[in-house]
C-alpha cells in the first residue's frame, strides 16, 4: 500500500498541519511516512502545500508529481493540482471557497463545505480537520483517535483544550463524506 497525497491552499489554512498530523498518526501506527512542506516567503496568505506519502514499504522519494489524492482549500491550488490527480484518484475540495472545479470524469470529486461547518463550530481554524475527516472516511488509513493522539504530541499543551473541537470537526467531515459516497 502506498498513498501519495497533496494538501494545498493558502498559508494559515492549516494545510501543512493536515499533512503533518496525518503523517505523524500514520507513523504512530507503524507505517513509513514522508512529509514534505512547500510554501512561499509570505507564509500566511501565500500559497502552501505539502506532499504526504504513507506506505507499508520503504518510500524511495518524497517528491512526486502525480497524486492518488488531492485535498484542496483554494482556487489557485485547484488550478495547479486538480489536473495532477492520477486517473481513478480522489479530489476533495473546500466547497465554500472554490468556485471553479476541474472538469474530469476519470477521478472521484467531493465538495466538502468545511469552512461552513467550522463556522458552525465557532472555530474557523478547524476547517482543515473537517477536510481531513472527510479524507479519512474515503481512505481510512488511520482512525480519528490516531489523529487525536498525533495532535496531542504535536500541539503545544496550551492548545490541548482544542482537541475536543478538532475531534468533532473530524467526525463532521467523515459524516459529510459518508453521505456523498452514498449518492
Summarize the structure.
This protein is α/β, with parallel strands linked by helices and 183 residues long.
What do these coordinates show?
The structure is a single chain. This protein has 183 residues and is α/β, with parallel strands linked by helices. The protein has a single domain, classed as Pyruvate-ferredoxin oxidoreductase, PFOR, domain III (Pyruvate-ferredoxin Oxidoreductase, domain 3, 3-Layer(aba) Sandwich). It is built from six helices and six strands, in the order E-H-E-E-E-H-E-E-H-H-H-H. It has a six-stranded mixed beta sheet, with helices on both faces. Helix 1 crosses helix 5 and helix 4 packs across helix 6. The radius of gyration is 15 Å and the shape is globular. The two termini are 27 Å apart. The model has no long low-confidence stretch (mean pLDDT 95).
SSE map:
Elements: E1 2-10, H1 15-28, E2 32-39, E3 47-55, E4 67-72, H2 75-81, E5 85-94, E6 108-112, H3 114-120, H4 127-138, H5 144-154, H6 163-182
Parallel strand pairs: 1-4, 4-5, 5-6
Antiparallel strand pairs: 1-3, 2-3
Helix pairs in contact: 1-5, 3-4, 4-6, 5-6
Please name the CATH topology: Pyruvate-ferredoxin Oxidoreductase, domain 3
Number of helices: 6
Q: What fraction of the residues are assigned to beta strands by DSSP?
A: 25-35%
Largest beta sheet: strand ordering: 2-3-1-4-5-6
| DSSP strand tally | 6
Please give the CATH architecture.
3-Layer(aba) Sandwich
Largest sheet: 6 strands, mixed
Query: Helix/strand-derived class?
Result: alpha/beta
Helix content: 25-40%
Reading the helices and strands in chain order gives: EHEEEHEEHHHH
The first-level CATH class is given as: Alpha Beta
Cα-to-Cα separation, first versus last residue: 27 Å
Unreliable stretches: none
Number of structurally distinct domains: 1
Dominant shape: globular
* Nearest-integer average pLDDT: 95
Assign the CATH superfamily.
Pyruvate-ferredoxin oxidoreductase, PFOR, domain III
Rg, alpha carbons: 15 Å
